[in-house]
Specification:
The protein is of the alpha+beta class. The protein folds into 2 domains: 3-51, Translation initiation factor 3 (IF-3), N-terminal domain (Ubiquitin-like (UB roll)); 57-141, 2-Layer Sandwich (Translation Initiation Factor IF3), CATH 3.30.110. The protein contains 4 helices and 6 strands. It has helices at residues 3-12, 34-51, 69-84, 103-117; strands at residues 16-21, 28-32, 57-62, 88-94, 121-129, 134-141. The strands form 2 sheets. A 4-stranded mixed sheet has the order 3-4-6-5, with helices on one face. The chain is rod-shaped. The two termini are 54 Å apart.
Length: 142
């Protein structure tokens, strides 16, 4: 039907002629109440937004290079929970006092931490120096 006839038909029914698929061949139009149509679109967008999951950056802090293996296991279990929820995990080690001389021990500690999560995690950013007294890494789910 021609656009003129469609406009007249829509006007006679007190509705609007709305182009639904402009790239189709031929373009698809409908005779509907445009206000109701926009309301339903907004409602669908709002519903889709509710279903989205925002990725958060969770942090796990290690206080010393001299941390026990059991403490590393406990922190890695918590990190595993965060990763399974779909979040990113930032693990950092704060050097205190003379520990700053032993950066290689700190790097080894973070690598052993990653060893507990190797099956589920991958590096988002590798182990790197953050400021003077801190090294960190960011992990994401595989």
């Amino acid at each position: 039907m021609s656009s003129k006839e469609a406009n007249e038909l829509a006007a006679s029914k007190n509705l609007d002629l709305v182009e639904i698929a402009p790239k189709g061949k031929p373009p698809v139009c409908r005779i509907i109440d445009y206000g109701k149509f926009r309301y339903e679109l907004a409602k669908k967008e709002k519903e889709n937004k509710k279903k989205q999951h925002k990725v958060e950056l969770k942090t796990i802090r290690m206080m010393s290079v001299n941390i026990d293996k059991h403490d590393i296991e406990i922190k890695s279990k918590k990190a595993r929970e965060f990763l399974e929820e779909g979040n990113k995990v930032k693990v950092f080690l704060q050097f205190r006092g003379r520990e700053i001389v032993h950066r290689d021990m700190g790097r080894a500690l973070l690598e052993s931490f990653f060893g507990f999560l190797e099956d589920i995690a991958k590096f988002d950013s590798p182990i790197m120096q953050e400021g003077f007294r801190r090294i960190s890494m960011i992990l994401t789910k595989k």
